[in-house]
Structure formats: structure tokens, C-alpha cells
Amino acid sequence: SNLQSAVVFPNKISTEQQSLMLVKRLLAVAVSCITYLRGIFPESAYGTRYMDDVCVKILREDKNCPGSTQLVKWMLGCYDALQKKYLNNYWICLQTITECYHFKFKYTHNGPLLDFSSKNNRKDSTITCADTKKASILLIRKIYVLMQNLSPLPNDVCLTMKLFYYDEVTPSDYQPPGFKEGECEGMIFEGEPMYLNVGEVPTPFHMLK
Questions:
Q1: 207: which of 106, 134, 151, 155 fits an S-S bond (Cβ 3.0–4.6 Å)?
Q2: pLDDT tens-digit profile of 136-187?
Q3: CA distances, 65 to each of 7, 29, 68, 207 (Å)
Q4: What is the C-alpha separation between 33 and 46, in angstroms, rounded?
Q5: Three-state SS for 122?
Q6: Which residues are in the HORMA domain (predicted)?
Q7: Helical (H) or strand (E) element with 206
Q8: How far apart are CA 91 and CA 112, in angstroms?
Q9: Of 51, 155, 180, 162, nearest to 100 (Cα)?
């Protein structure tokens, strides 16, 4: 399926298209890792790929597993919103709600200068490909470590996905393929949620948190 390409880091991220491809693949790797490590789908729903030297499992459309096929379709719809620069927030929720994985996207101006606030208060720092690669691999490794410390999910687990948009640029009737207008804005957690910030990956054109 369309998620299956390996994450190849170009020597230089000099076009928005290269950056978009990297962000899409990174999202596919992150979502696949989460569902794989949480045991959502059977082994047959994943292919093995490499992200530099890190071995990762990537979701594929498995005809014996309608859930994985559905999730791949959702991911492709999510790419549509990402490509149009409408996508702001992307949530994957398990149960009502045992766990929620929240991805946040920013689009930057077409230049290698990126202004984002981080702990070092770097302003207008030039993002190199090495920075992006290092941050990407760190993000995936952190997901692996995080998953090892979570308690098992219940057997009747249910996965949903929500997309939130940048309202000022998104047409009011826009819904990417596979999505419909959502009713509720909020999140209802079982008990008191614990929040963890896993990391951020900057490129000259995008920012994935």
C-alpha cells in the first residue's frame, strides 16, 4: 500500500515536496509503531521497513484485517489534509479514552529559516537535514521506550481518529477522503490523564510535534 515506502532521508531537504514526503512517512512510521506495539492488529497487517538503521513495522492493507485497511485509508485522507496545509491536529484515540496520541503540524514559509519556540529559544535557526534525521529517529525511539511502560489494553479495544484543521485556511465543507464532520470537540478520559511530550521534528518547511 501507499504507506510502505522506507523512510529515506535526502541529503538536503530543499523542496517543500521532499519535506512533505518525509513528514508523511514519519507519520506513517509513528502511527504504525503505536498500533504495532500496542497489539492493535495482527502481525500480518505489518511489513518490515528500515528508517536509516532502525527497523520499523509499517501498516499495510491486509485483506484478512479490515481494521488495518481502514486505518491505512484514514492515513491517506490525513495526507490529503496535510498536503493542502489544512491539517493542524491529528489524534488517535483508543477507547473512551484510555490512550490518545496527538500529532500537531505547522507549515513554515518556503525558506530554510524556521522560527519555532523550543527550550533553547532558537530563533530563525537554519534546519539541516542532519537535524531532521536525528529528531526523527529520536522520536521513533522514544515511542518504543514509552510503549514498553504502558499496561496492556483491554481485549475489546476500539480505535478512532480525529482531525482538526487550521480554520482560517480550510474551506468549511472540506473533509478529506474517509472522514466526516465530527460532532464532539472534547476528549473524555477514564480517570485523570497523564500527558507526555514525546518530541518534535523540524524540517525547513514543516514541523511535526
A1: 106
A2: 999 999 998 988 888 888 888 889 899 999 999 999 999 999 999 987 666 7
A3: 24, 19, 6, 32
A4: 10
A5: coil
A6: 17-209
A7: strand 206-208
A8: 28
A9: 162
**Chain-centre distance for alpha carbon 160:** 14
Can you point out the beta strands (E) in 2-141?
46-51, 54-59, 87-94, 99-107, 113-114, 125-126
CA pair distance 138, 144, nearest whole angstrom = 10
Domain ranges of the chain: 16-117+124-180+198-208
Q: For the domain bounded by 16-117+124-180+198-208, which CATH number is listed? A: 3.30.900.10
pLDDT tens by residue, 91-127: 888 766 778 889 998 887 654 443 444 444 444 567 8
Report the distance separating Cα 22 and Cα 42, nearest Å. 26
DSSP E strand stretches across 61-186: 87-94, 99-107, 113-114, 125-126, 159-165
User: Are 169 and 85 spatial neighbours (Cβ–Cβ below 8 Å)?
Assistant: yes
Ramachandran bin of 199, using left for φ above 0, alpha for ψ from -120 to 50, beta for the remaining angles:
left
Give Cβ neighbours of residue 62 (< 8 Å, ≥ 6 apart): 41, 42, 44, 45, 68, 69
DSSP summary character for residue 45: G
The CA-based diameter of the chain, rounded to the nearest angstrom, is 49
